[in-house]
Each structure stands twice: as C-alpha cells, then as structure tokens.
Hints:
The chain is an alpha/beta fold. It has a single domain (6-171), classed as Rossmann fold. It has seven helices and five strands; from the N terminus they run H-E-H-E-H-E-H-E-H-E-H-H. It has helices at residues 6-16, 39-49, 54-57, 73-84, 122-129, 139-145, 154-157; strands at residues 24-26, 50-52, 61-66, 89-94, 133-136. The strands form two sheets. Strands 3-4-5 form a three-stranded parallel sheet. Helix 2 packs parallel to helix 4. The protein is globular.
Amino acid sequence: IPDSSLSAAIGYAQESGIPYEVGLIKNKYIGRTFIEPSKHLRDRAVLLKLAAIRKVVEGKRIVLIDDSIVRGTTLKHITHLLKEAGTKEIHVRIASPEITHPCFYGVDISTYSELVMAHTTRKELMDYYKVESLEFISIEMLKQCHPQQELCRGCFTGQYITKMFNGLEEAHTIK
Length: 175
C-alpha cells in the first residue's frame, strides 16, 4: 500500500522471491487517512486516495503489504478495490505487530474502541476483509529490525516508555 509500506514491500519481495509490482496508484493530495477525525471522513478519504491497476492485479494471487492496522478502514477499502479489479487471492502482511493499546505519543489514538485489533481476532478480520491470510511482524522481529534503537512498544504491548500510562487497560473496558 503506497507509500508508507514501500520499504516493507520491497524487503518482503527480496526475502520471499516474489516479484514486487505496483498494483495500487495513490492520489498524492490525500494524506494519512487513519487520522481523519470521523469514520465518514476516513471512508471518504480512502475512496479518493487509491485506485487498483487492473492489468497488474487481475487474476493474480497477491501479497498486500501495509505498515499497520489501526482502525482497519483503509485495508477494508483496499481489499474491496482489489477484488473489484479481479484479484484472485489476497494475502495480507503487516509490517508492525498488532496495535492493541492506545498511543499517547505523537499519534492520537486514545481509546481501545478505536483499535480494531483490541477487540477483533485475526480470523474475524480475515473474514471481514475477505482475504486468504493475515500475518503481522512479531515484537521479536521488530526488535531485530531495529537493534540499535530503544523503541516504544506501548501500542503493541501496553508497556509504555513512561510509567504514567502503564496499566491503563485496567481503567478501560476491553471487549
């Protein structure tokens, strides 16, 4: 998914031996859709943001790479676009672990209810997106990718770099 997943997609292609092809065109005038303030605006932005290239995806089994799944809006629209363009199978690979906890540092995702992976199983998401498989990078693999950096993993593990946010799941109801 252009553009935030480009490096992950190229790396996946190199490691797997599956050729990298551009199957989606991005409207450069639409920004990050997951940060729009309402579901209606996010849905609208996604519809304007991307278009499938039928000649590239029609009749093919594809691996779709995304950087993360936050609310799940973008991926739903993209898988629909790809199916409409005649994609035979879609296998989704996510270049981050599952985001199951709010982020309080830089990305304004403050509630568990906004996070699709906080209350949905992988199988439920596969059915919802109508995809054949869905895999996330593990926390351990993320650490291996960035061995020299101390990364905040609060949104993946619930353990934040400052103590003020640790244990917040006790204050929120998780489905």
